[in-house]
Design goal:
This protein is of the alpha/beta class. It has a single domain, classed as Glycoside hydrolase/deacetylase (TIM Barrel). Helix content is 42%, strand content 14%. A 7-stranded parallel beta sheet has the order 5-4-3-2-1-7-6. α2 links the parallel β2 and β3. α4 packs parallel to α5 and α7 runs parallel beside α10. The protein is globular and about 55 Å long. The N and C termini lie close together (11 Å).
């Protein structure tokens, strides 16, 4: 009863990220990608995804540390005049919790991102959030509500549970997230691998984690790129995106999957 999902986040961020996603799926073990619909290379990502019908694609909701999809005039309490979303996650979370205007703008932006995903024509495999911001109760509530509307009465798309033991200070937030997902009947993974090594999930680490996989659904998440660039370094300093790309192509990782009798799947493939 062991199942694994291999997901690449930030799909659409740059052409280098998109190229890595395509190659890691066709030549490696990548099964899913999470699309940033408002990112600069989103159109290129969608075009690649349409050439890869076996790649499961989800929505990477972005409400912080990125660019908004809507113009500033439509969401003045959320984004600055240049369309930048807040970079400080803590202060942003406090602001959203106490500001009715910010919550209204959050709902507008999140709904716009769901609408943009629908417009791609891609099947929605899952939903997660950049920097795991769906851990914030306000953001989660909006995502669940909009996802229900998006599904038009069908099942709400699966969501990521960003739990990698030991969870430490995140434990109460994760418990709340898990409870709300279960109450809403939303499928989710049981464990997430990659939080402690974000941006550094190398082949050695992946292979070692695969040897420890337990019953249930384990998601491995990556931030790959076909090469490191100044733009990518500025957005996530210190990330070894090329190393994570190489892990997805690694014969050692493929061998570990075979040894455990595992084949990466998508969230839509979960029972």
């Amino acid at each position: 009863m062991k199942q694994v999902i291999f997901t690449a986040d930030d799909f659409g961020l740059t052409p280098e990220v998109n190229e890595a996603v395509e190659k890691a799926h066709t030549r490696g073990v990548l099964s899913c990608a999470s699309l940033m619909v408002g990112a600069a290379a989103a159109a290129d990502a969608v075009a690649r995804a349409k050439r890869l019908p076996s790649l499961r694609v989800g929505l990477h909701v972005t409400v912080a540390d990125g660019k908004a999809l809507l113009p500033h005039a439509a969401i003045p309490a959320l984004a600055d005049a240049a369309g930048n979303l807040p970079r400080n996650l803590v202060t942003a979370g406090v602001h959203w919790f106490f500001s009715p205007a910010a919550r209204r703008d959050l709902a507008r932006e999140i709904r716009a991102q769901f609408d943009a995903f629908r417009a791609t024509g891609l099947a929605l495999d899952h939903v997660n959030a950049h920097n795991h911001m769906h851990l914030h109760p306000t953001v989660l509530g909006i995502i669940i509500r909009v996802a229900r509307e998006f599904g038009q009465g069908s099942k709400v798309p699966a969501m990521r549970l960003p739990w990698e033991p030991p969870a430490g200070l995140l434990t109460p937030w994760l418990a709340l997230l898990r409870a709300r997902l279960r109450a809403a009947g939303i499928r989710h993974n049981d464990v997430l691998v990659g939080m402690a090594a974000t941006g550094h999930l190398t082949a050695d680490r992946v292979a070692a984690a695969l040897m420890q996989v337990r019953d249930g659904v384990t998601e491995f998440y990556f931030h790959p790129a076909s090469r490191n660039t100044p733009d990518l370094e500025a957005q996530a300093p210190g990330y070894d995106r090329l190393g994570e790309f190489e892990a997805l192509l690694s014969p050692m990782v493929a061998a570990a999957l075979r040894e455990k009798g595992l084949k990466p799947i998508g969230f839509a493939d979960l029972g």
